[in-house]
Amino acid sequence: MLTKKLGVIGGLGPLATACFMEMVVKMTDARTDREHIPMIVYSKPSIPDRTDFILGKSSADPCTDMVEIGKILEELGADFIAVPCVTAYFFYERLCREINVPIIDMIGETAIYLKNSGVSRVGIMATDGTVTGGFLRKGLEKYGLEVVQPSASGQKLVMNMIYNGVKANMPIVMDEFYAVKNELLEAKAEVIVLGCTELSVIHRDYDIGPGCLDAMEVLAQKSVLFCGGKIKNEYRKLIT
After folding, report:
1. What is the C-alpha separation between 159 and 47, in angstroms, rounded?
2. By the 8 A CB rule, do 193 and 215 touch?
3. Is 63 an annotated catalytic residue?
4. Are 150 and 59 found together in one domain?
5. Of the residues 19, 63, 85, 227, which is catalytic?
6. Which of 11, 60, 70, 104 could be a cystine partner for 43, CB 3.0 to 4.6 Å?
7. DSSP character for 52?
8. Total count of domains within the chain
9. pLDDT under 50 in the chain at which residues?
């Protein structure tokens, strides 16, 4: 029986949180219920939008709620905390300062995975908040990776898929996904990083083709390992 507990700051958005939990369970090499890692999930969809705050469209600070949830998870005995929302990593340093539980660095772990896979140039699909904030790009560049971002028109397609597709619980127009993916591949990206956890839902539900790395899959894999679980062989290689 595994005893290390994973706390999850969820609701960012709610479908992405559910997708993350499913990833953790499916990735775990377990034959009984008791061989899965314990999870404490606090899903609060009312947390203010991260992108709106980063872009200055809203003064409502989402980090306040995230810290509150993190402290509750701390009190409940979480040994590690996962935040399945890439845009929330704009607040990563502040969260680490205010919560006394290690928070898994999804961006850093994604960069390490790419470097260990021999990748040197990546394209990213992410929210306007993540692109404007620059923290995903900088986090990847810190490990020596070259980063390619979509054009302005490509970025509009990414935001449409995230906000008018997954967050709105509407079907995805996959021609939009492939248009952005092909643009990044034409810019010599070797791998496309899905740098928004709503895009992870698209990965789960649609055929995204080869050459993509889902950052939330990296987070799920590390969550299992940090909490003492084992990864199924089919989930050791994450690049499609």
Report:
1. 19
2. yes
3. no
4. no
5. 85
6. 11
7. H
8. 2
9. none
Q: Are residues 163 and 87 in contact, defined by beta-carbon separation less than 8 angstroms? A: no
Which residues have C-beta within 8 Å of that of residue 16, sequence separation ≥ 6? 84, 85, 166, 197, 198, 200, 201, 216
The residues facing 82 across adjacent strands are 8
Residue 102: partners with Cβ closer than 8 Å, 6 or more residues away: 79, 80, 81, 226
Looking at the fold, whether 11 and 95 belong to one and the same domain comes out as yes
Q: What is the pLDDT of residue 162?
A: 98
Q: What is the pTM assigned to this prediction?
A: 0.96
Rg (alpha carbons) of the chain, rounded to whole number: 17
- pLDDT tens profile 170-199: 999 999 999 999 999 999 999 999 999 999
Domain that holds residue 169: 105-213
Residue 238 within a domain: no
Alpha-carbon span 33 to 26, nearest angstrom: 12
**Contact partners, residue 149, CB within 8 Å, separation at least 6:** 123, 124, 131, 137, 155
Q: Is 85 a catalytic residue?
A: yes
CATH code for position 156: 3.40.50.1860
In this prediction, residue 3 carries a pLDDT of 80
Alpha carbons 178 and 172: distance in angstroms, whole number = 11
**Domain membership flag for residue 240:** no
pLDDT tens readout for residues 146-177: 999 999 999 999 999 999 999 999 999 999 99
CA distance 83 to 207: 25
Q: What is the rounded distance in angstroms from the CA atom of residue 193 to the CA atom of residue 123?
A: 6
Q: What is the pLDDT of residue 2?
A: 75
Name the active-site residue from 19, 63, 196, 227.
Answer: 196
